Amino acid sequence: MNDAREVVVLRYGHRPGRDDRMTTHVGLTARALGADRLILPDNAGQSAETVRDITGRFGGPFAVELRGDQKAVVKNFEGVVVHLTMYGERVQDVEAEVREAVGLDEPEVIGEASPPRDLLVVVGGEKVPWALYERADFNVGVTNQPHSEVAGLAVFLDRLFEGAELDREWENADRRVVPEATGKTVVDAEGESDDGDAGENTGRD
Ligand SMILES: C[S@@+](CC[C@H](N)C(=O)[O-])C[C@H]1O[C@@H](n2cnc3c(N)ncnc32)[C@H](O)[C@@H]1O
What we know:
alpha/beta, Alpha/beta knot, 2 domains, six-stranded parallel β-sheet, 31% helix, 23% strand, disordered C terminus, binds S-adenosylmethionine
């Protein structure tokens, strides 16, 4: 979400057919909630296409990559690795430490900020290898209850950015949704006027 540090989301494992929708939603959630890049397993090409298509229409920047070497991505990542797991430390207990590790914390003294470091956020699908728990700098639980990678990722990113991702501006969007109490208005983002007069109700989601 900023120039100095990259937040990357890795979907570890994908079962074609069974996981298609969930993997796509991991990608859409990563994009919408402030990550810079998504790495999907190379058998998740359809999900990658969907996320790229949404980025093309609703804006970015957001990069999507397919990789066959998930283990190597984690092992060789030069930065901080967070693994989201129901068995991990409570997000509310470690979020400040994670922010500090990647240099996202407000310095108490001017000039004392930690240097920016890249962050890899790993979410599983099927069972993930034990080596991931050991490699991770932080194993983080969003509650210690079983739920979903999409929900875990959303809460973690929102905690990481402390809500700032909700105000993000999107670049190179074709279209923009006009927030309103009732209705579904989407405007052409290129050359739009501030009053949203160009809006159309698409009647679609
Ligand atoms: C449906 S779960 C499968 C968990 C699998 N049984 C295991 O032991 O790894 C898929 C993914 O959702 C995420 N997840 C599920 N519950 C979570 C929680 N409470 N906190 C953080 N992440 C969670 C984890 O990334 C997990 O790998």
